[in-house]
Write a structure and sequence with these properties.
This protein is mainly alpha-helical. β1 and β2 form a beta hairpin.
Length: about 260
């Protein structure tokens, strides 16, 4: 967020250095050092390192770890309790578990910004996200149905998936999801919904003035309701500074 918004370069570099200090020898960046299986922050660290050539080694090791640790997959069963294809591998929150929408999207957004993106892994991640799309449009955390019950979409999950699928899915494939995210059900001025609505629509060139203006409205609500935590503020600021273009956050030219 600081990088995309033109924050003090020394502060951005120091933060990247802190992330580097948390990286383990195998390349992952765990949420807690005593719980190395919590490797999901690795994608976020990779996104933070990519714009700075001084962190090329850290970025390369993080990317290698992510590519070597996809989500758990198993042969699909059309008559099973799940409505999605369990044979497709994306990425997960916890090492050794099933793939879900948000970690898959976050890894795809980071890996896509590499100088040589790993296309086979990204293509499978895209297939997984399309497969997890709900019949009426949108995404939740990653289940379409359980037994006979179709589940409901969530704005921030939908934004994640659409941001990751830009350039990897045809517009008609995600048309219902774009309509859902642009519609009134997702216009709530809350941090995650506002930020990822901007990222999801921005990736498809649809972050209009109302969508971007909602970021400012959401930030201003702190004056009434109290401050958001750092992660929420960061996502809002990153979305606002990039005008909903996640690619600008991980680009070498973003700070300038």
């Amino acid at each position: 967020a600081l990088h995309a918004g033109g924050g003090p370069p020394e502060m951005v570099t120091a933060a990247r250095g802190t992330l580097a200090g948390a990286q383990t020898p195998d390349g992952r960046v765990p949420y807690l050092p005593e719980r190395p299986e919590t490797g999901w922050p690795t994608a976020l660290a990779l996104a933070a390192w990519l714009p700075d050539p001084d962190f090329t080694d850290q970025a390369a090791r993080a990317a290698a770890w992510l590519l070597g640790h996809p989500g758990k997959a198993w042969p699909g069963d059309k008559n099973g309790i799940f409505g999605h294809d369990t044979s497709l591998a994306g990425w997960n929150w916890i090492e050794g578990t099933h793939s879900w929408v948000e970690p898959t999207a976050q890894v795809m957004l980071a890996l896509s910004a590499l100088p040589a993106p790993p296309e086979p892994a990204l293509a499978e991640g895209a297939r997984l996200l399309v497969d997890r799309q709900l019949p009426g449009g949108g995404w939740n955390y990653g289940n379409t149905r359980v037994f006979r019950n179709i589940l409901l979409p969530i704005p921030e999950c939908t934004g994640h998936a659409l941001a990751a699928l830009a350039g990897r899915a045809e517009p008609e494939t995600v048309a219902a999801s774009l309509a859902y995210l642009a519609g009134p059900d997702c216009a709530s001025p809350t941090p995650l919904a506002a930020a990822w609505r901007a990222f999801g629509l921005g990736a498809w060139g649809r972050a209009d003035a109302a969508v971007l203006g909602n970021l400012a409205v959401t930030l201003a609500r702190q004056e009434r309701h109290g401050p958001y935590d750092t992660a929420l503020v960061a996502q809002l600021l990153a979305a606002a500074a990039s005008r909903g273009r996640f690619s600008a956050i991980v680009a070498r030219s973003a700070h300038a």
